[in-house]
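Lab notebook, bench 4. We co-purified these components, and the gel suggests they stay together. Before we commit to crystallization screens, I want a quick structural picture of the whole thing.
Request: model the full complex, all chains together.
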Amino acid sequence: MAQTLEDLGPPSVGPPKSSFSIGKIWTDKRSRGIVIQVIAMAIFCAIVAYLAANVVKNFEELGKPFGFDFLKQESNYDINQTLISYNSQSSHARAAVVGILNTLLIAVCGIILATILGFILGVLRLSPNWLVNKLAYCYIEFMRNVPVLVHILLVHGILVHSLPHPKNAMNINDTLFLSNRGFYTPQPLFQPLFWLVVAAFVIGIIFAFWYRRTARIKQEATGEQSPVFWVMLASIIGLPILAFFLTGMPIDWQFPEQGRFNLKGGMAIKPEFMALWVALSLYTAAFIAEIVRAGIEAVSHGQTEAALALGLPRKRTMNLVVIPQAMRVIIPPLTSQYLNITKNSSLAIAIGYMDIVATIGGISLNQTGREMECMIIVLGLYLTFSLTISTFMNWYNKRIALVER
Amino acid sequence: MNLIKHVAATAAAASILLAGTVQAGTLDDVKAAGFLKCGISTGVPGFAFTDDKGDWQGFDPAVCKAIAAAVFGDSSAVKYTTTTGKTRFTALASGEVDVLARNTTWTFSRDTDLKLDFVGVNYYDGQGFMVPTELGVASAKDLDGASVCIQTGTTTELNLADFFRTNGISYEAVPIETNDEARTNYVAGRCDVYTTDASGLAATRSSLEDPSAHTLMPEIISKEPLGPLVRHGDSEWADIVRWTLNAMITAEELGVTSANVDKMATGTDNPEINRLLGSEGDLGAMIGLDKAWAWRAIKMVGNYGEVFEQFIGKETPIGLERGINAQWTNGGLLYSPPFR
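Here is the predicted assembly.
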């Protein structure tokens, strides 16, 4: 009974089981793969270790300590566009936060405007009207074949050189002013009762989504459709407006007025922000337009015909059949365009918009001499932004992906 | 242009990562390379500009030319690298340049914390303000609410914040990278005021279409001793730069000019001139050069006064007075230690 499997099987015909040999590591396909990977990894680690050691050595030779204590020191410089309170007595860390918020502001505004413009242009590109189609085509080709930095400098140049001085600012009814120092609007000053309006807005949103959900359940159960869009609009926009008037309009407006040098008071959108926002949005919109066009064209025409044959109206065909399928094609490249806007916003430095590169990666770096630390911070921040955006977009992509069985 | 500079700044930071370690023997490196790597500004009329042949000229490059003349006997053996207020220190620290000669203010933290060595002062300056005359501003303290164009990464940026804060007045800082851009924005009316060192303002004003339509404010709000600087930790190299500058200053004090230096080098009855020009003693050997090092610098570039008058003096469009930049014997601040 002490037979092994070997004894039972036919006499072995393959190469005899040899013992371990060096040559075999290389001739065997599997072990060769492992060996190559180990070597590649070792080389990679060696390069990283060399660079790190070199940094340490250079820092030692320069006699510079490495550390982030400088972030707590006063920054001693002023920033002209801030979303949070900041002055020259604030710390470098706070200057960095100002920069982060400015970067996020331009990224979010840029993404919104570029998406809206991009979708409109993409649809125009598909227009059967020859003129509209060709105009959209020319626009797209012009925008995406000129470097974005040129667009930024161009728009900034136009704003600063062609708009009037604040003294002669174009103005509408003494409330809105447009000059080469910025676009000035009245600033709202909220009175205590304003929180009721905010509360109404929140309640409106909650009600709207509750209503949408019940409407869907009702439609699934009975097939009866409810005016979801109008009810949502009324509760999200209408309710707060109602609350606003019922509480007696609890907002005061501070109007911009002429000062000795500049317009005083009110809110100002600086030309640097406008230039960057407009240029980045127009540039990226051209890419998004092509992505949208490709996405819509990727949905086979048979789908549309089938939907129409089933009796769906044209609008519903678009909303329920074409767009959901097009979105699957559109989302992944759209993600990379969103990342591009965020990263391209670092070109702000060219026109003096104070983003992270200009604050912590620029002035702070220069005034403190901490190149390595500041660059590490800037790299880390951009990486965080980009990974966050792509995580969100991947999640969204998965959500709308075709569920296959 | 700006992007290039920005990339240069980043590249300079990266070069700390990649560059071979900065060697202590800068003189040997310079001699081996056959040229001096000199960091200058991106252009300020009179102080650093390109002539019609495309060569850098001006008050600041003259320092580098003198060093090259002292080391190589060839004032053109210089490779110029333009740096902005932001990129300059990184460029120097990473070894991209051997000496920085670009209106840089000598401050405590730069000398110590940034690990740089200022070797002397070649221009005593102070920060001023320029405004269009039509605004009718008489004093910088009347600038409440004004937009101020300011070069980022400079001491002027910090002085400006201090000045407005201590006077309790508000302003909008419009950050700008280079002098040229500041000029463009100022002319376009993006800002009411341009502030930088008074010498830079005079230079910029001279390049405006109608200089008389712009006024310099009477206030000088800071001390800005400008001078060449090198990396910390190589005192031999610092000595060469320091004493080349001192040689130019001493030459003016002793009346040695590029015109009469040949005659004086054969020997005079003033022992200090003889030591300076190498006909007596061997000072050159003490800094690793030959006897005639200072003679070459003065012969090829000129003494301090000659350089001043050639590029920024009264006869030039910049039209700066010697003022406190006169020799101490004429009531100025220029005072070179003795050549002994």
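Chain B touches chain A through 56 residues (CB under 8 Å). Worth comparing against the SEC data before the next meeting. The longest strand of chain B covers residues 127-132.
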